[in-house]
Amino acid sequence: MDKIAILTRDCAGINASIRSVVRTAFYHNIEVVGVLKGYDGLIDGEFLPLNRRSVSGIINQGGTILKTARSKRFRTESGQKQAVQTIHDNDIDGVIVIGGNGSLTGAHILATQYDIPVIGIPATIDNDINGVDLAIGSDTAVNVALDALDKIRDTATSLERIFVMEVMGRNCGYIALRVALAGGCEEVLVPEMDSNIESTCEEIQASYDKGKVSWIVVVAEGKAKAQDIADTITKRTGLETRVAVLGHIQRGGRPTAIDRILAARLGNYAVDVLRNGATDQCVSLKNDMLTTIPLGIAIQPKDIDVNGYYKLIKILT
After folding, report:
1. What pLDDT is stored for residue 212 in this prediction?
2. Tens of pLDDT, residues 174-200
3. 3-137+255-298 and 139-251 agree in CATH topology
């Protein structure tokens, strides 16, 4: 194998993974090019040569130095064929894709439908890659949200108010559940669970009558809008309720040590797996051991122990 390409999505820790891939590849005398702007860049042949020096100083940076974009064109057969032609025209022997479900689905298509050697590295704040204990970026996202929640709790306690904090999670409540548990929150609403806001309001009112003067409700964006929940609570209880929507700050920021170390190990392993002739695989840590799982399995829906998390949150409230 003489030349590989790296394609990424964006979240904290991806730059650390790029660095690991590039420096491991150069250790084995393999040329590396970065694909700019995701699958659109692969279609258009937008490449950036990468070497040991070009990835110096990026280990602590959030986002991705390669930029990224959602690609409608790659979802079409013509777009996929154009991307494959670009790979062949540039003498690329293999591709490493760093990203979440959408990015890894594209990697699976390249491997299974067009015989391109591809290895995936899981990187998503939702940590929703099936069979993967921890994806790059998820630890940082949870810690960013938790830091904000801790500050909100100070205000909620001082002003004796209810706060509804909206975190990211369109289809997955991973961030909301982890933040609610780590932050000692009273309620959490996630897409995977049916929620009864009326029951929540009754709990708030009953607690208020007993002297509890502040509450924090965490809601995943895919479940409901924080403002709608806050309006309902105020209407049902008459208590003042404030809203905090964290938005995309959860995707950025300096990666935690956990994400940097994970990125370094998975990036290094991905190159070795690709060099050894494997394809259509996602690298992962299982019980702190490096392993691979088929991309076809990795992109399937992931089960989270939502009930277990929720039960613990309510017990500890």
Report:
1. 87
2. 999 999 999 999 999 999 999 889 999
3. yes
Q: Which residues form the catalytic set?
A: 126
Which one of 3.20.20.150, 3.40.50.450, 1.10.443.10, 3.50.70.10 gives the CATH number of domain 3-137+255-298?
3.40.50.450
Structural domain boundaries in the chain:
3-137+255-298, 139-251
Contact by Cβ (8 Å): 74, 106: yes
pTM: 0.94
Check if the beta carbon of residue 13 is closer than 8 Å to that of residue 255: yes
* Diameter over CA atoms, the chain: 72
Which H, E and C letters describe 213-228, residue by residue? CCEEEEEECCCCCHHH
- pLDDT confidence of 233, banded at 50, 70, 90? very high
Cα 122 from Cα 133, distance rounded (Å)? 10
Q: How far apart are CA 135 and CA 298, in angstroms?
A: 11
Superfamily of domain 139-251: Phosphofructokinase domain (3.40.50.460)
Beta strands in 91-225 (DSSP E): 94-99, 118-122, 162-167, 187-189, 215-220
Q: Any bridge partners for residue 284, and if so which?
A: 291
Cβ neighbours of residue 37 under 8 Å, at least 6 residues apart?
46, 66, 67, 68, 69
